[in-house]
Structures are given as structure tokens and as C-alpha cells.
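Same chain as my last thread, 290 residues:
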Amino acid sequence: MKIMVNMKMMLEEAVEEKAILRAEVMTLKQALQSRETEVPYHKTQGAEKGRESNEVQLMEKRAKMLGDQQLEAAAIKQTIRNLELLKNGCDNMKKQIENAKHFGVPVVVAVNGFKTDTEAEMDLVCNVAKAAGAFDAVRCSHWAEGGAGAVALGQAVQRASAAPNNFKFLYDLELPIADKIRTIAQKIYGADDIELLPEAQHKVELYTKQGFGHLPICMAKTHLSLSHEADKKGVPTGFVLPIRDIRASVGASFLYPLVGTMPTIPGLPTRPCFYDIDLDPETEQVNGLF
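reply #2:
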């Protein structure tokens, strides 16, 4: 924030100084024009007029220099605006730090520094992250330098791993299914509550009856927003999270609620492997598994 305050002061001073010079230049020009029309020209007056003309030229030159400075000040102003927008955009990052801290472990933020990012912007993100409770926030350039660009990040994670922690799960696995979903919705997404649509309510009753009520929850939800609506950016609040359906992955031991209109697709490649799996009727061996 100190950077932004200093930039604002520089901008205000440059604008104020140029305004004063403009006023002084106009005053001197008006005085010279008045002498040309009202006072007969002679050597002494001419010398005085020449001296004052030089003063005007010097002041005009200085005003031009200030014009260049004003262009620089405009750039500073734009930088301030960019930093303000960036600061507002950090709200989501702060919420994600808060979410990770629910689990009682230190949080390390990796700040990808690209060529178009300024030092002030990266400093701002790091400072905001630490103020929000991150153990550390580290600039990274592994996108350009490979492993060498992430050495500092690895060292920060190593320090965080050695720091005291109080790891805990977000909820008790023995809670009812609906309560576990509600805990995620309220603590992680910031929802006021959840709405179990008829199919989801039916699945809650079915899975509880079948003995799967103790399974953990894995939410199927858009990644583009903390809410169920992809266009709700930042940290939306005051919404109710709709649960359309709940499905069970019994083999993997979790339940996955479908949030809003979130679809699911089979995780198959272009040519599924089962095309190459067969049973040899003579040896009774399964071929193509490995």
C-alpha cells in the first residue's frame, strides 16, 4: 500500500506544479502584450522586455518538461489503477487461503510471475497472501526456467512442512450426509445453505439405508466460481447451493453430489482399453489387462 500512496503523491505534485506554471506563463504573456500596446518602445524597455521574454521561454520549456512528466504521471496513475484492480481480484485468493486453513495446516501460495507482471504487482499479491494468513507466498518462474524457477517454492513448502500444525478434517465422517454437504457449502463455498432437490433427497435416504452414510463427500461443481454459477466471480455470498443429485462411488469409498447443472462424463480415452481385453477360452486367461 505504501507504493500506491507514494505514486498518488507524485501524481498530485506533478499536476499541481504544472497548473502553477501555466498560470505564471499566462500572466507574463499578458503583461508583455500589454506593454507592446501601451508603452512606446525604447532601449531600456526593450532590454526589460527581452529579459522577461527569456523568463517566459524558460518557464515554457519547464512546462513542456512537466508535460513529459505528466505523461509519466499518467502512467503512474494507470499503474495505481492496475494495482487497485489486482487488489480487488485477490479476494478469491484470500478465501482459498481461508479454506485451506480450515484443515489446520500451513498454507504456501505460489505466485506465477510472467513477463508482463510488474514488481509492484507481484509484491502486492505476496503481501496480500501473507496478510490473509499464508505461511509464505513465493514468486515462481518454473514456466520459463523449469525446476530452477521453483526452488524457492520448494524450500518454502519444506519449511511449512516442518512447522507446527493441527491437521483436522473439515467434518466428522459420522455426520448425516446432508450435514456434511452443508458444512462444505457454508465453510468452503460461502453459501447460506443447501437445497436438496427431490432426487438428491431420495439418494440421501437410500445411501443411508444401504450403510453408505459414513462415506466422505466429493463435490461435483463448476471450478469457475465458489458458487454453482460460473459467472459469479470473486467471493459470492448470500446464495443457496442446489444439490441436483447424489451418486455413490462405493469402490472408491465416496459420495459425489451434483451441484446445479454440473454434468458428469465417463473418463474414457478416444479408444477405450476394453477393446483390447479378451478371454482365452482354452487357457481361461484374461488377455490385454497389462
